[in-house]
Amino acid sequence: MVFEGKETLLGVVRAEAGRFFEMVDSDDVWEAPTGAGHWQVRDVVAHIADTTEAYFVAFDAARAQEEVPAAYGLPGMAERVDKQALALRSVPRTELVERLRADFDKMIEIFDALGPEEWGGFNVPHFYMGPLPSFFFPAFQLMDYGVHSWDIRQGTGRAHGLSGDAADLLVPFMFVLWKYTTGAKDPCELGIRITSGPNAGDTRVKVGPDGMDYEPGNVDDLATVIEFDPGSFVLTAFGRSNAGTIRGDRAVADRYLNLFFRI
């Protein structure tokens, strides 16, 4: 999230995008199933193109200091992105893949140009979440290319996993994702322990009537702790798997893990 991490983050985004394009640019896989619900590979490509092109509008509006509509909100995101992706099903593979490649190159140029002040101090209006510091947008691209690459591999039926570099970088953002996708506000308090990687450590999480709050801290005094490796944490937060090792009160863990709506 700090400017010193910019090149690391962008390097992993480039690597994940490169692997993604290698997987999708073939007629043999274009209509193959994925781990993203009813989406086929072509729908994943369409979704990332639609999402990336919305970022161009957002950055232009932020630089022009234009008024933008209020954030759409995350509860309706899944339904809307599904409609946006399926609307592009008739676009031929070569055309849509080339469109996304051009979108990616343009997006990276925007990210490369962000300086130390802009990285954390320049707010850009995300369509669903509202104004966010610009460093969130490379992270969103990592989510798109990293998690959706996992989706495509999942659709093959072969055993596989999530890239360590991608998972490590996404760990902090998964707490943000959980915070803003909390549905029912059933009170609970527990610890989340990330067991490996550069973002390993303990986080205290509390859910109440006003939503979810979290902070780093010792969790030894809590009745329930859920342990994750980075990849399992990311895939669980995105609703792709039910993972984690529960230590303590299973009822608390069960209540917590079922609080969230999917995007």
From TrEMBL:
Keywords: Isomerase, Pyruvate. It comes from Kribbella pittospori. Pfam families: MDMPI_N. This is Maleylpyruvate isomerase family mycothiol-dependent enzyme. InterPro entries: DinB/YfiT-like (IPR034660), Maleyloyr_isom (IPR017517), MDMPI_metal-binding (IPR024344). It comes from the Bacteria. The keyword Isomerase applies. Gene3D superfamilies: dinb family like domain. GO terms for molecular function: isomerase activity; metal ion binding. Residues 15-153 form the Mycothiol-dependent maleylpyruvate isomerase metal-binding domain.
